[in-house]
Amino acid sequence: MAATNPSFMNGVPELLVLRLLRNGEMYGYQLVQAIRDETGEVVNLGEGVVYPVLHALEKAGAIIGHRRAVNGRSRIYYALSPAGVSRLTELTDLWARVTGAVQQVLVGDTHAGLV
Amino acid sequence: MAATNPSFMNGVPELLVLRLLRNGEMYGYQLVQAIRDETGEVVNLGEGVVYPVLHALEKAGAIIGHRRAVNGRSRIYYALSPAGVSRLTELTDLWARVTGAVQQVLVGDTHAGLV
DNA sequence: TTGCATGCCTTGAACCAATAGGTATGATAC
DNA sequence: GTATCATACCTATTGGTTCAAGGCATGCAA
Fold it and tell me: Does residue B79 reach within 7 angstroms of strand C, measured from its CB?
């Protein structure tokens, strides 16, 4: 029973970060705000969530960070690698499968449909 | 990185159990199979997941268990309580909000729509 | 010079699914 | 008759992930 974010968040931060980076490189602080804004404040990830995700993704080779100075500020811009693209595809697919399966139960379609 | 079930499972077991019980009382072993069958085997929860969920829900007053003997077998049938019904409503709502928000990012609708 | 927004980061606790066990009964197969 | 399987219940432990709560530094405005 989290006060800030509802449950159902497992794996969502990674998916959202990858998806947003597909539109072009972004830096951590910017991702935090983009996620808050684009979800209409339904999902509000703290920096303590986003930065570890970025570091894990970079370590896994899914994204690549470049330090750059903008207006005297130091930012780390992250870009998707080919591995990151396929990871995104994989996660998007998984997301569709799981949400679809749950939705099926919620709607109450009592049939074991093939594929 | 779970080997069996994909990620995105946070809170899902509780939601599925509550939803299935809305159709009428069921027992643990039966719930395990129903979840596997009705999701087309996309979601496959072990008994080690379902039983703790049932115990937690009963402790919270969301469901009520009755031990009953059927064919010489002892089963504990669980039924939704009024508290369980509102918990189900709450979770269903949350599920819709979160999946909707994520979907919005996945599709790439860059607008902060109200409500 | 005080405060605030930006921008990066880590640590600790808490939660929850998943694994891997364990017990016991009835039915079926050898 | 006894070994095995499906049924039916249960718990302890592990591991992964989110989250809160900090800390550090810079630029700009009051």
Answer: no
Mutate one of A17, A98, A104, A115 to test the B interface: name it (highest B CB count within 10 A).
Answer: A98
Q: What type of residue sits at position A46?
A: G
The 3-class secondary structure across chain A, one letter per residue, is CCCCCCCCCCCHHHHHHHHHHCCCCEEHHHHHHHHHHHCCCCCCCCHHHHHHHHHHHHHCCCEEEEEEEECCEEEEEEEECHHHHHHHHHHHHHHHHHHHHHHHHHHCCCCCCCC
Length of chain B: 115
**Triad A12, A38, A70: Cα angle to 5°:** 100
CA B40 to chain centroid, in Å, comes to 15
Q: What is the mean pLDDT of residues A83-107?
A: 95
Q: Is the CB of residue A16 less than 8 Å from the CB of residue A40?
A: no
Query: Which ranges of chain B have pLDDT less than 50?
Result: 1-3, 112-115
